[in-house]
Amino acid sequence: MPRPKALVTRTLLPDALDIIRAVADVEVWPDEAPPSASELHGLAAHADGILTTIMDRVDAALLDAAPNLRVISQLAVGLDNVDVAEATSRGIPVGYTPGVLSKATADLAFALLLGAARRTSESERWLRGGGWQIQFHPTHWLGQDVHEACLGIVGLGQIGREIARRARGFDMDTVYHSRTRYPDAEAEYGIRYAEFSDLLAQADFVMLSVPLTPETHHLISGPQLAMMKPSGILINVSRGPVVDPAALYEALRDRRIARAALDVTSPEPIAPDDPLLTLDNLVITPHIGSAALPTRLNTMKLAARNLVAGLQGEPMEACANPEALA
After folding, report:
1. In what order do the strands lie in the sheet with 49-52?
2. What's the rounded mean pLDDT across residues 17-39?
3. Do 49 and 4 form a contact (C-beta atoms < 8 A)?
4. Is the Cβ–Cβ distance between 133 and 112 less than 8 Å?
5. pLDDT tens by residue, 172-196
6. Which of 48, 126, 198, 270 could cross-link to 194 by cystine, CB 3.0-4.6 Å?
7. How far is the C-alpha of 168 from the C-alpha of 17, rounded, in Å?
8. Rounded average pLDDT over 3-15
9. What's the confidence (pLDDT) of residue 134?
């Protein structure tokens, strides 16, 4: 019996690729940049399974181009680049990687929070540009205290809970907003539920950790930014389109909020001439929330195991649409 054919749309660490190669013939896209839509469609034409990243658009057009496809495995928690409903209608299970990267992403969220609060990137650029003055000045480079400040978490999934856990170490007064209220988390992490507008008004730091859905697209735009404190700091570790970039630029430019920190942008990658990049009160990283070696390897291995399970007709460890095989 011929071995199944698997397409992997980005180079993975060897231990993860070996999991797939044990059961399938594997084609790996070798370039640093992701394949274009036409390249991806061509590569997928004979694939039985495909392991994708958030940069790949998996829609009806791709599925039409891949008549043999039996499984999709996404190397991420978010699935906004995958038309899960379309895959379900064709009986194709979609794997994803929840849980594995929550702690690493929460670590990065706090790195962004601390960097924005204490102006580390801004002051480093000043120093590297020759601005260092040996004389201490008591009013220079004033940031904001993190300890005992109010943190507002929007979205209390696994990442949101890990953020709440870390906030306890800074003695923060933490409030959260979510579609569902979680009394168990309130008791475990010492946090309080707040309506969205109340959270925006009282938080010193607003942390976004929601999935991208039609309801959360531009969840933060001009009206919401106007509700924040002038001293407020916005941190986004969810998906770029959760924040309206034009509205954020105006709020930062006009100092209607103090600073922002982003690990995700809209669009992604951000254009080199994007006006946000001209701002000195913005900390920005290139979507590195899960980019810690042990975490990234474990994520790759889970995605590989999901792909193999789908190729072998077995249940995945994490499937977004188990009804596809009903």
Report:
1. 25-28, 5-8, 49-52, 71-74, 94-95
2. 97
3. yes
4. no
5. 999 999 999 999 999 999 999 999 9
6. 198
7. 38
8. 97
9. 65
Residues composing the chain: 326
Asked whether residue 273 carries a pLDDT value surpassing 80, the answer given is yes
Nearest alpha carbon to residue 162 among 189, 136, 142: 189
Q: What's the confidence (pLDDT) of residue 135?
A: 62
293-311 vs 14-21: helix crossing angle, rounded to 10? 10
Residues 6+ apart with CB under 8 A from 292: 104, 107
Task: Render 181-250 in DSSP notation, one character per residue.
Answer: --HHHHHHHT-EE--HHHHHHH-SEEEE-----TTTTTSBSHHHHHHS-TT-EEEE-S-GGGB-HHHHHH
DSSP 128-191: IIII--SS--TTSS-----TT-EEEEE--SHHHHHHHHHHHTTT-EEEEE-SS--HHHHHHHT-
Percent residues over pLDDT 70 in the chain: 99
Just list the catalytic residues: 239, 268, 287
- Strand ranges of the sheet holding 259-262, from the earlier edge strand across to the other edge: 192-193, 173-177, 150-154, 205-208, 233-236, 259-262, 282-284
How far is Cα 76 from Cα 303, in angstroms, rounded to an integer? 8
**Mean of pLDDT values over 222-246:** 98
